[in-house]
Automatic annotation (TrEMBL):
Keyword Transferase: yes
Keywords: Acyltransferase, Membrane, Transferase, Transmembrane, Transmembrane helix
Region (Disordered): 393-461
Keyword Plastid included in the entry's annotation: no
Enzyme Commission (EC) number: 2.3.1.24
Species name: Leishmania infantum
GO molecular function annotation: sphingosine N-acyltransferase activity
This protein's name: Putative dihydroceramide synthase
Membrane topology, record value: Multi-pass membrane protein
Gene Ontology annotations for the cellular component aspect, listed alphabetically: endoplasmic reticulum; membrane
Amino acid sequence: MALRYSAETMRVQGIGSPYASLAELYIPDPTNASRRTLDTARTTLNWSELPSAFLNIKAYQDKVGVGCSGWGMDVSLLLVLYPAVYWFLGIMLIRYLCREPFARFGIYMGVVTEKSTCRHRGIASGKRGVASLSPRNRKKIMKFQNQMWLSMFYFASSCFGYYVQRDQPWFKLPLDDEASLHLLLPHPYNPPEELIMYYHYGLAFYFAELCSLFIIERHMKRSDFLEYAVHHITTLLLILCSHIGLEHRFGAYVLFIHDASDIMLSVSKSLHYMWQEETARRERRNTKNAEERNSKAHRKSFLQRCVVSELSLNCCFAAFTLLFFFFRLYCLPFMGKATIRMSPKVRHGNFNMWMLVFLLNVALQGLHVYWAVLIIVLSLSIAKGGELRDIRSDDEEDSECPSCGHQRSLTESNGAAAAEEGKGMQQRNVARESKAAPSLSSSLTSTRNRSQRRGSSKRKE
């Protein structure tokens, strides 16, 4: 077993259950004597009982003999999470090392378009790679890097989450009554080491995402900044509260559902950035073709020709929509049955358990419903012939030229240089005129003297 805890602490904190195992809740099947079935009257609240039970949950649990007391938290278990610090440093290091390869891959796939003159000018000024791009293109590449990183992490995390839970009795999609009770019993549950490691890097990842949101990506506009921050903070609280309350089964199940549904979201957004730039290039090329007959078309890479298309983008978006609705709006609400309708009858109530009920069924599920509405709106617009776009983030359109961000500063510097050159030429002309003025006056004087001498000689004659 991975954790060590005191039985006395569990009793004082109200972490426990009157049932030692799930077998105590089975009764003989009336229709088949050789089978046993769950006694739903002892395990599940009826819908009519919910209002009266939740108006005073402590009185209800005392009435049914379950009991409700304590905070439900063993704070000493937080020390077990210290390896998350090393996971956090490792995740940030891997993310930093992947930035340049992801950026080069994005440039290869046509996420940005940079004029060769602008790129050579940036290289001549001592900049290399992403640093030689314009500010607008750097932001686009940063968005692409982020989505590529998220795609890689969510895929790896989903594979590990499935590996950890694949043979567990609670791991069913969606949950049935038996699997829901396996999430609750026996309690307290001592998780294996693999599940604790799942918690370690999950906690580190969401903390790293918060740091990225507030520090690394602080200059990038996001229309869903508040929702994104609330989602990550809620997930962190869910991980921490489920750990100190020994509710690791709930936490691991929720982490897998979130990771599995987010894979195609990141892939779709990465393809969206490629297709968005491809569409912009096509429009610019059509405009140029209208002006020049012999204009050169943009040269695509082999992988870009195979992957980047409207069909692949729509297929990825459809896959994301199906996964999102299946995992977050179909599978996850079944956990509401386990936490709201079953836990009051089979578990000792405590503050931490009801905190998890709120975080899971109100905060997280509320955000999922909000995002589902956005997805439906986008799907309807596509069905009407609209364009697929990322409606959760603002599209940044800088006022600068899309291909060369420092063109304006160069124009200003060239104008200033031209003004200085004009002023210098004017000063040189004035100096020439001032030098030429004495010679002109002397020539006029000599001419006047010669004419006077001729006149005097004629009078003498």
